[in-house]
Amino acid sequence: MSLRSHILHSIRSRGWLLLFSTCVILINSRTLGAEGQGEIAWVQLGILLVTGFSGFIAGGAVVYLQQSIPLRSTILPGHIWLLISSVLASLLGVSTGFLPAAYAYDIALLGWLQGIVVFHSQLLLGAQAVVWHNRLQVMQTGLLVTGMVVAYFGWGWQSIDAFLAALLISLACTTVVSTWKLRSLPHIDRAVPTSRVWTLLWKHGSASQSGALLQMLTNRTNFSLLAQQGMGGAAAAGVYSVAFYGLEAIWVAARGLAPVLHTRTAHTSDRQKRIEQTRAFLSLALVITTSLLVVAALIPDDLYTWVFGFGGIQPLIWCLGPAAIAGCKASILAHHLSGIGQHRWNAWTSGLGLIVLIVSASLLIPLHGTVGAALAASLAAIVQTGGLVAGWCQAEKAKAWDLWPQKGDWNIIRRRSGEVE
């Protein structure tokens, strides 16, 4: 399958994912209000925390390690760790007050299933099955929307529990499909000691996933901070979550391109070719991201109020604007660094971003509420992206201006390759 086809399929899949995700937010906002949306965002933070811990063994490191060990040899260790991390992460989050105690069991179960889907998707990505990696994400979100429509409007069951039930069914179905698809993985043609598999998974997984976990916390810790101490509590978290999900929608191109770049970088030994690929991907991602940001920022708050049932969203979009541009660039650079095994830069810069977020948000949220949270998020994103640029330059022995768009970039996007679906 050509590089261009992979890119178009990934962006198209992200478009469907954006559509379904928007439906989820709209349905919850209109039926459960800002407070209900805030509670759901807090629970979803817990699910992401579980999957973050899961990735230390059952995560994206398998894409890089497919060069060293057979993908099938990672399946058993990955699933053992998925069970362990679902329990440990949910207990840690609840015991520290970071997560809502009332939903501890839901977070553990749903996080476990989500972790399985993510793990299986990464295995398929390691086998260069980019199309199926994308399909699983779209499938899960599409099933969630279907379940919500049936529960909310078919049965009249409009509550957080109804959302969690729909999410459970969607994750369970996607888990079954992803497990079935694993049959296409290459069969093991060489024996690898189990101890070596565990060692390699932990060595590379802990390095790569530390960055991913810290990045997730940088992006979403504001949900917990607002729910606990912000002006308006869960309702404030609900308003902020809608704006932040809008920010994630603006990242549709960067997040669609990043996995394609990741797998191509992992399979490209020529340094100059890697730099050219990343510059081309970054240029395309920034053009689309900037265009979407301008559109979102120009929509009046009255229209946001009419759509979602509550206002205060447009000012947050403006404050999150720097985070939109910085986050787009960070996503591309982080996947490039992961593809060449330089995971430590992702971890260090995400950790720095989290520190900046916690300090600035703790100061700004009590004074400015959701606006303070948005400003803190943008500041953290700018600091993190600056660190990733420095890390990329050092890892590739390049200069920052090597990322500046050049005339031949679009030819790289159009180039055909021999990748398989």
Verbal overview:
The protein is mostly helical and 421 residues long. It has 16 helices and no strands. The chain has helices spanning 3-54, 61-65, 75-95, 104-126, 130-154, 160-181, 194-229, 234-250, 252-266, 271-298, 301-308, 314-319, 321-339, 343-368, 370-396, 409-414. Helix 8 packs parallel to helix 15 (370-396), helix 9 (252-266) runs parallel beside helix 13 and helix 13 runs parallel beside helix 15 (370-396). It is globular. The termini are close together. 55% of the residues are buried.
Keywords:
disordered C terminus, mainly alpha, 16 helices, 421 residues, 0% strand
Rough shape?
globular
Q: Mind summarizing the main beta sheet?
A: none
Order of H and E elements:
HHHHHHHHHHHHHHHH
In round numbers, the mean pLDDT is 86
Structural class: mainly alpha
Number of helices: 16
Number of strands: 0
N-to-C CA distance: 6 Å
Low-confidence regions:
416-421
What's the quick description here?
With 421 residues, the chain is an all-alpha fold. It has helices at residues 3-54, 61-65, 75-95, 104-126, 130-154, 160-181, 194-229, 234-250, 252-266, 271-298, 301-308, 314-319, 321-339, 343-368, 370-396, 409-414.
